[in-house]
Structure formats: structure tokens, C-alpha cells
Amino acid sequence: MRPAGPAIRAGVVGDPIAHSLSPGLMAAWIEAAGIDAQYSPYRVAREDAETFLRGLARTECAGVNITLPHKHIALAIADRVSPAAQAIGAANLLTFRDGQIHADNTDAMGFLDALRTGDVDPSRGPALVLGAGGAARAILHALVQAGVPEIRLSNRSRSNALALARDLAPDARIHDWGDRDQALPGVALVVNATSLGLSGVEDLVLDWRNAPGDAVAADSVYRPLQTGFLRDAARQELRIIDGLGMLIGQARPSFEAFFGFAPPTQIDARALLLSHLEPKS
Ligand code: NDP
Questions:
Q1: For the whole model, what pTM was predicted?
Q2: Ligand 1 test: best mutation among 20, 130, 191, 195, most atoms within 8 Å of CB?
Q3: Which of 155, 153, 277 is nearest to 226 (CA)?
């Protein structure tokens, strides 16, 4: 006899975790799918993460999403690592199967999904990626996989940009942070993969007049949804893609990994998440 409770358990592990939108979205998908499952948030301090995840892997839990600051330790403790997680150097998804910990990274898929939803073909022209942290790594990997013809990279710390290019896009052209506007002429896609624009953090400022009129601005930040970066691009009449698409796009394959089928389509994930997002303070 199995213990009382949902048949399938999954969740998201991070610190902090209260702000995570994943539990609400997963709960709606679980309910719409009519399955006996539960997706829980777990707040786990950095020093406890390895013990917690190894312990969880020995339970009935199907797997967990991983958010900051545990994406590196999640990769390090895995028995099996997907090519995407290996290339990106971080895992946002662990599944527990056959007594083993499997690590994957669905952030790159999520970004491509957001571009697809916005009808943007990344192979159309040069892409400028701003940032060199975890999100930038996933986005760069996605763009390379999607056949982007040229990558331009700019980050506050040049050393981090160089390391990122070395690992994922050796042909990328590095622009000093102070000269980032000079990377805009001829660009087809500009991505904010920094934490600038997050609620309470200063905005990422670009001189959009240097960008072609058909360039697309995409943000990884989704809280707030309308960042200064996107607002300025829209003012210049450029197309914009906000960070929610990437969030939803990474959640879909995670749901499938936990429960064995794609999330039900009758849920409007975007509308649901919008109802959870508060305006920028
Ligand atoms: P990291 O901490 O790994 O990287 C932060 C990046 O922002 C670095 O490139 C850092 O530059 C840069 N940065 C931070 N502060 C400043 C500043 N004051 N001026 C200039 N650059 C700055 O974070 P992540 O890569 O994990 O996350 C980045 C953003 O992406 C976050 O807003 C996060 O919410 C979002 N994200 C969204 C996802 C989605 O599904 N939509 C998924 C994952 C992340 P430096 O190297 O110099 O420190």
C-alpha cells in the first residue's frame, strides 16, 4: 500500500522561493489534467541543498525544478546530465528515475519557445545578448542551437563575457559594457539577460535609435513584465517579447518530465501568470 497523499509529487527548490510563479502554474495544469499529483515549493538554504536534493531523490518524488541559487549544485550532484545542461553548465530540472538523479536545463528551450510564440526566427540576423550569468548562458546556447548567424555579447564584467563566449560561442563579438550601443546597428534581436530591470533594480538603458526598425527586443526579466528596456524599445516602435514566454516555455517540458505528458492546453498560462504578477513598486 502506498502512503496517503498524492500519487505523484514534484516541486521547485530555491532560496528564496515564495516569489516563484511555478507552483501556481503547475497546480493549474495538474488540476486541468485531472491527475493525482502535487507540486510544492521548497525553500532550502545553499548549505543544505545537496543533502536535501539527495534525500528527495530517495523518496517517491518524480523530480524538481531548480531555481537560484542551486542550479550549479543540482548539476554537480546528478548521475546523468543532458547535453543542454552540460553545455549551459547549470540545471533547472532534476528528475529521479531508476535510483538516479537526471539533470536537464529547459531554460534554453523556454527562450526558443518564447521566440516562436512571438513569431521571431533567430536565424534571421545578428543577435545581441546583454549579460553573462545563468540566463545568458541558456539563451546563448539556445541561439547557437537555433542557427543564429552572428552573436554579439556585452556584459558589465568583460571577463564573464569572455568566459561565456569561450564556453558557448567562440565566434561571438564582445562589446565593452560602456560601448554596448555600438553593437546595435544591423542587429535583428536584442536580449536582456541581465538582472537589470528587475523590480527594485535600475533599468537597462540602450540607445534604441542605433537599432534597425525591424529589430526585436526580448527580456528575460518578467517581474515587472514591462521593463524599462522593453518600454524604451516599444517607444522606438520595435517589437518586444517579455520574460513570461521564457518562463512558460521552460515549465512545459518540466511538467512533461514529471508527469509523462504535455500540459493541458485549455489553461491560458500567460493569463494565469499575469494574475499573479504585481505591478512594479
Ligand atoms: P545571474 O546572477 O547569474 O547574472 C546576472 C547578470 O546581470 C550578470 O551578467 C551581471 O553582470 C548582470 N548585472 C547584474 N547587476 C548589474 C548591473 N548593476 N549592471 C549591469 N549588469 C548587471 O542571474 P541570472 O542570469 O540567473 O538571471 C538574470 C535575469 O534573468 C534575472 O532577472 C532572472 O529573473 C531572469 N531569468 C528569467 C528566466 C525566465 O524564465 N524568464 C529564467 C532565468 C532567469 P556581471 O557578470 O558583471 O555580474
A1: 0.94
A2: 195
A3: 277
Whole-angstrom distance, CA of residue 211 vs CA of residue 52: 47
Amino acid 214 reads: D
Taking a C-beta distance cutoff of 8 angstroms, is the pair 50, 72 a contact? Answer: no
Q: What angle do CA 104, 55, 33 make, to 5 degrees?
A: 55
**Atom 36 in ligand 1: which residue has the minimum CA distance?**
220
Cell of 229: 528596456
Instruction: Give CA–CA dist 216/238, Å, rounded.
Output: 6
- Known catalytic residue at 71: yes
* 150 closest CA partner among 175, 121, 128: 128
Partners of 133 in beta bridges: none
**Residue 271 burial class via C-beta count within 10 angstroms: exposed 0-12, middle 13-18, buried 19 and up:** exposed
**Segment 50-82, tens digit of pLDDT:** 999 999 999 999 999 999 999 999 999 999 999
